[in-house]
């Protein structure tokens, strides 16, 4: 992608974000049970979805790295993972901010939340592995393998958490929200906006990673 | 020198590492059966990495490798042709020499593992073969490592600074074994930082400096002084 | 297969001679249980209900230590590289290490159950046989990923500290499902309940084993 395409992406993302904000705060009707606090959902859910996809991105990049050995894939993986950590942290924070007024607790052992917490822990583990792994080649390989394991594991975590919930129903459930059409549109706008924003962040981080690589290479050649 | 599949070891354009850490930069070499190549280089020049790539323990970032005509990365069976002796003995401390050798014999699929293990221990004069490896002296552990490398009758023997820390008697013994291996048609590649050692056992020598291999020079009839001068010259040139 | 047997035998015989892994793991597990029993002082009835959680917390952390140590042994004298030099497939090397690690974890679980019965309540002994399938299947999944990640972390800077950070979040499904099975077994639950959890657990185990066998070659090479 060229700079002009990146610029287009950035402007598009800005426009989509403004639209999503309008949708979240003004367009969507107020939810009956929870009131205005529910509007945080229009940020929380898109963040969660994109955060999960970011890890999928890192996993796919990992598989490609193992197949081709090309450094670009490793750069893509670390970029996706870093932004994923950011989004995941925001998911947990917005989830907490939402839970407190609604259910009176900062945290609930809801399967979705548990899965997200584990996803966050795996992301952080991924970054720690990269920090500890040592030389570039080993770091890229290990990170790719862990990204694959982690991503395949997430659905398993979710399914087993749901199984546990089915056994003991004394756990808060989140999806008692029926979606009116205006709410659905707001949600969709949010998804588009945050996905585009992810694209913008990813491109920047990816470019930075490649530049750092290039600098190291040039420095090495100069020696 | 013979090129291509008929060679015991054929490497073409081996690269290893990225960015700051490129250890090998386009190393190519060929060693036919019954010849010994010495690779000289200062510490940190990538000698150990090169040997580990040749032993197929490390993947090169680029380049081709053929051992006895096969690609050891594509076909694991090609690894039967290679033996490696490095700084660490690559043996389990909690097992005895014989147990280590019998384990490896099973992994290599050797038909009479125990007998072969005994034979190779006899060849190398390993007396305390039933004691745990961690209790043995460094010298005996190194001999056990050589036993491990020769166990499966490889066609190629790779040795990383094999003479370091050996007393003259042990060094003589090692030379004898290497000459015997060569006479049986085996190919040897060894690394060293001493021109004298290279002269004593090798047919040809090449210098590895900053990840690049200068062309090999035949050693038959070469005097130590002129060889040492050549090596220092090559190292200095590459360093510029 | 002769190769697989040789690989598993190698680890078992070293452990039988030194007994270092099992003694240290057992002691740590026992200490953990002592602390837990002092902290909660549960009545026998409560203790039985708490059993799945207490058992798995103890096993999870202790087994992680054991796995880290087991893989550290492969790095001593670069012994593992000797195995990599051979023509044995990397999946088979994985299964060999997995097999030996599994034996250690199963023995650890036995020790933990016995110690739990002694420290908390012998009630748990009544349903002892029913505890075996969930614990054993849990051990399989835990050890599969533990072997893969253990090989990886053994060569990194943080070593033993990194393994729990990476391993525990990933094997959570196995721990959850195993605890569900244990709960069902302890409550004298319906066969259907126990069977369901075991089937799910077995499915997860298979996924983890396949992952291990597939990805081990990418990890093994640099783990030297």
Explain what this protein looks like in three dimensions:
The complex is a heterotrimer of chains A (223), B (240) and C (224). With 223 residues, chain A is mainly α. Chain A has helices spanning 3-27, 41-68, 71-103, 111-132, 136-167, 181-222. Chain A is globular, with a radius of gyration of 20 Å. The two termini of chain A are 32 Å apart. Chain B folds into two domains: 4-68 and 155-239, Rossmann fold; 92-154, no CATH class. Chain B has helices at residues 47-54, 97-108, 113-123, 138-150, 168-183, 195-201, 224-239; strands at 9-16, 24-31, 36-40, 62-67, 82-85, 156-160, 187-192, 204-209, 212-213, 217-218. With 224 residues, chain C is mostly helical. Chain C has helices at residues 2-18, 20-40, 44-75, 79-84, 90-119, 128-153, 162-170, 172-186, 191-220. In chain C, helix 2 (20-40) packs antiparallel against helix 3 and helix 5 crosses helix 9 (191-220). The interface between A and C is medium-sized, with 31 and 30 residues.
Would you list the SSEs of chain C in sequence order as H and E? Answer: HHHHHHHHH
What is the C-alpha radius of gyration of chain C, as a whole number of Å?
Answer: 18 Å
Alpha-carbon distance between the two ends of chain A: 32 Å
What's the total number of strands of chain C?
Answer: 0
Rough shape of chain A?
Answer: globular
SSE layout and pairings?
The complex is a heterotrimer of chains A (223), B (240) and C (224).
Chain A: H1 3-27, H2 41-68, H3 71-103, H4 111-132, H5 136-167, H6 181-222
Helix pairs in contact in A: 1-6, 2-3, 2-5, 2-6, 3-4, 3-5, 3-6, 4-5
Chain B: E1 9-16, E2 24-31, E3 36-40, H1 47-54, E4 62-67, E5 82-85, H2 97-108, H3 113-123, H4 138-150, E6 156-160, H5 168-183, E7 187-192, H6 195-201, E8 204-209, E9 212-213, E10 217-218, H7 224-239
Parallel strand pairs in B: 3-7, 3-8, 5-6, 6-7
Antiparallel strand pairs in B: 1-2, 1-4, 8-9, 8-10
Helix pairs in contact in B: 2-3, 3-4
Chain C: H1 2-18, H2 20-40, H3 44-75, H4 79-84, H5 90-119, H6 128-153, H7 162-170, H8 172-186, H9 191-220
Question: Can you describe this structure in just a few lines?
Answer:
The complex is a heterotrimer of chains A (223), B (240) and C (224). With 240 residues, chain B is an alpha/beta fold.
Which structural traits does this protein have?
heterotrimer, B: 240 residues, alpha/beta, Rossmann fold, 2 domains, seven-stranded mixed sheet, three-stranded antiparallel sheet, 7 helices, 35% helix, disordered N terminus, C: 224 residues, mainly alpha, 9 helices, 83% helix, 0% strand
